[in-house]
């Protein structure tokens, strides 16, 4: 059975650059460096998928759906994330899986989402799973919420303009890792999710210069609401 089809032709005008940039992600030197360092092993099947859902009528009003993983979770506890998870045998593919996981975690109805594009699979740092990022758009996404409190305890749309504000951007480092991060609603968005935000914003040509001095992750997390207790 075929996966849920992508419909890039239905992207709003203000997202066409992002969709095209994702399709040609390696045309950007910044994106090439980022993605090449997180490429799964050759031939590895997709293990998981995440949904990067935007809503709004322009870059100035755009928002993107984020979740906060419950601190009691055994893996990635307290981290900010996109809705997503493992691809089940009952899923028709990564797009189907991303839509299903988003519904399970946030109550987002799949019929409200237009899948636009995917990135090449990206590996997670901890377990090297191959994760397929799926870009989607919804003109009216309803009211996503923590539909699975055991997994997520906060769900919200983050204004893209706030994420792009140079004062809300930083680079964090820990145990040999160095990567982009964002602050929003008192949370620190870093790691896999921070990397993907950086990639899609660069694809759209929206990135603004910011201070890239590396901040130790422990220090960056100390004033946040993340509650990532293992650092």
Comma- or semicolon-separated keywords:
manganese; eight-stranded mixed β-sheet; metal-binding; Nucleoside Triphosphate Pyrophosphohydrolase
Order of helices and strands: HHEEEEHEEEEHEEEHEH
Decide which structural class fits the backbone. Answer: alpha+beta
Helical fraction equals 10-25%
- Count of separate DSSP helical elements: 6
User: Average pLDDT across residues?
Assistant: 90
CATH topology grouping of the domain at 8-164: Nucleoside Triphosphate Pyrophosphohydrolase
CATH superfamily of the domain at 8-164: Nucleoside Triphosphate Pyrophosphohydrolase
The first-to-last residue Cα distance is 43 Å
CATH C-level category of the domain at 8-164: Alpha Beta
The whole-angstrom Rg is: 16 Å
Secondary structure tally: strands:
12
Assigned CATH architecture of the domain at 8-164: Alpha-Beta Complex
Shape: globular
Low-confidence spans: pLDDT under 50, at least 5 residues?
Answer: none
| Main sheet record | 8 strands, mixed
Beta percentage is 25-35%
Q: What can you see in these coordinates?
A:
By secondary structure, this protein is of the alpha+beta class. It has a domain at 8-164: Nucleoside Triphosphate Pyrophosphohydrolase (Alpha-Beta Complex), CATH 3.90.79. The chain has helices at 16-23, 29-36, 94-106, 160-164, 191-204, 217-222, and strands at 48-55, 63-69, 80-81, 84-86, 114-118, 122-123, 130-137, 152-159, 169-174, 177-184, 187-189, 214-216. The strands form two sheets. Strands 1, 2, 3, 4, 5, 6, 7 and 8 form an eight-stranded mixed β-sheet that branches. A four-stranded mixed β-sheet has the order 11-10-9-12. Helix 1 (16-23) packs across helix 5 (191-204) and helix 2 runs antiparallel to helix 5 (191-204). The chain is globular. 42% of the residues are buried.
């Amino acid at each position: 059975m075929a996966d849920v089809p992508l419909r890039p032709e239905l992207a709003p005008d203000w997202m066409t650059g992002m969709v095209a940039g994702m399709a040609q992600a390696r045309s950007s030197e910044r994106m090439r460096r980022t993605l090449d360092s997180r490429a799964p092993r050759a031939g590895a099947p997709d293990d998981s998928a995440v949904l990067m859902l935007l809503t709004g009528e322009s870059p100035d009003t755009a928002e993107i759906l984020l979740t906060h993983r419950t601190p009691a979770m055994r893996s990635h506890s307290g981290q900010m994330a996109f809705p997503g998870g493992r691809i089940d045998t009952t899923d028709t593919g990564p797009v189907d899986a991303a839509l299903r996981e988003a519904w399970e975690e946030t109550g987002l109805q799949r019929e409200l989402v237009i899948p636009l594009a995917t990135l090449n699979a990206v590996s997670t740092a901890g377990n090297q799973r191959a994760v397929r990022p799926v870009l989607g758009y919804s003109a009216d996404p309803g009211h996503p919420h923590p539909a699975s409190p055991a997994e997520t305890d906060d769900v919200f749309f983050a204004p893209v303009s706030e994420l792009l504000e140079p004062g809300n951007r930083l680079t964090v480092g820990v145990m040999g890792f160095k990567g982009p991060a964002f602050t929003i609603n008192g949370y620190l968005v870093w790691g896999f999710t921070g990397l993907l935000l950086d990639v899609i914003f660069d694809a759209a040509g929206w990135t603004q210069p910011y201070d890239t001095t590396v901040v130790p992750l422990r220090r960056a997390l100390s004033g946040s609401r993340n509650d990532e207790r293992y650092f």
